[in-house]
């Protein structure tokens, strides 16, 4: 109908509006109502264009990976109070979409004669505080020089990658090095659970010795069940989709880009929805936990100052 009204607007200098309305079966009052609202529609289009520009900037800053939920959360963090349905409409109209993850094939294979550890988390992929539960996995990155293997350990309380290692071979040492890195950052609690699948890297003697040395507890999911280590595998699917590169020219370039993705974008810049605090980065979630821990420690260590400086005074009878 807007096209009809626009045609009448263009031809009204040549033909009378009433005549055009009869020919096009449009009420004259409806045309004038449309004409009166033209300025409001122009203002809305200008506001949508300005919002679309902001959305485009945020989308590019997210490596073209954010969809509607995280774009809306970023706008709210910038104090832009905008309806989520409006954000969805503008992104749909302008073809702005988030990244979708591809299905990942498992890399690790179970060792034939290794004795697996018990499953200590049972798909309980949450933790009350950082440093209590880690999940680990290993994957490969294709490069022009061959595969680059990436091993990571992720904290379930914050979803932060606390340890990682990249090497050009598929053995246990990257898994051990990544765990050593996580412990070296000083963010693991005593008896922290290190959970993984039953791949040969995780049933190796090298990893078991390192776990004992660090005072941790080893945990493993069942054979052939990707859901028992879903969070660790989900991170690799996210990395391969959102990093924006399918094949690197060499291992050095891949290492640099993966380092930047983990340390600059994922840990410090990428939003995830916390069940209690809303959209925050993994670093911000850890800082929230640390603040709550500090406040709780202050509340429980209030000095018993009452009576500390009070002295009992005894009055002696005055002799006559």
Automatic annotation (TrEMBL):
Residue ranges of domain Integrase catalytic in the record: 126-290
Pfam families from the UniProt entry: HTH_21, rve, rve_2
Cited NCBIfam families: transpos_IS3
Protein task: Involved in the transposition of the insertion sequence.
Protein name: IS3 family transposase
Taxon lineage: Bacteria, Bacillati, Actinomycetota, Actinomycetes, Kitasatosporales
């Amino acid at each position: 109908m807007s096209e009809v009204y626009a045609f009448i607007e263009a031809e009204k200098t040549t033909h009378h509006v009433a005549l055009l309305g009869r020919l096009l079966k449009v009420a004259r009052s409806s045309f004038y109502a449309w004409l009166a609202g033209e300025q409001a529609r122009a203002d809305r289009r200008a506001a949508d264009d300005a919002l679309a520009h902001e959305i485009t900037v945020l989308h590019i800053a997210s490596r073209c990976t954010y969809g509607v939920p995280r774009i809306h959360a970023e706008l709210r963090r910038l104090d832009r109070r905008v309806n989520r349905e409006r954000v969805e409409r503008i992104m749909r109209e302008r073809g702005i979409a988030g990244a979708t993850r591809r299905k990942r094939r498992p890399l690790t294979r179970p060792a034939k004669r290794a004795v697996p550890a018990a499953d200590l988390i049972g798909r309980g992929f949450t933790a009350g505080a950082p440093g209590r539960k880690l999940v680990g996995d290993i994957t490969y990155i294709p490069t022009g020089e061959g595969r680059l293997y990436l091993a990571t350990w992720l904290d379930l309380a914050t979803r932060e990658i606390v340890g990682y290692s990249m090497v050009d071979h598929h053995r246990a040492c990257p898994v051990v090095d990544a765990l050593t890195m996580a412990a070296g950052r000083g963010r693991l609690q005593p008896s922290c659970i290190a959970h993984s699948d039953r791949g040969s890297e995780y049933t190796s003697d090298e990893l078991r010795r390192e776990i004992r040395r660090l005072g941790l507890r080893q945990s493993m999911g069942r054979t052939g069940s990707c859901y028992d280590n879903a969070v660790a595998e989900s991170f690799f699917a996210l990395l391969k989709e959102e990093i924006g590169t399918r094949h690197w020219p060499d291992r050095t370039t891949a290492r640099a880009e993966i380092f930047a993705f983990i340390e600059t974008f994922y840990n410090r810049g990428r939003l995830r929805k916390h069940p209690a605090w809303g959209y925050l980065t993994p670093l911000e979630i850890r800082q929230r936990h640390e603040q709550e821990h500090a406040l709780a420690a202050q509340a429980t260590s209030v000095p018993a100052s009452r009576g500390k400086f009070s002295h009992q005074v005894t009055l002696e009878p005055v002799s006559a």
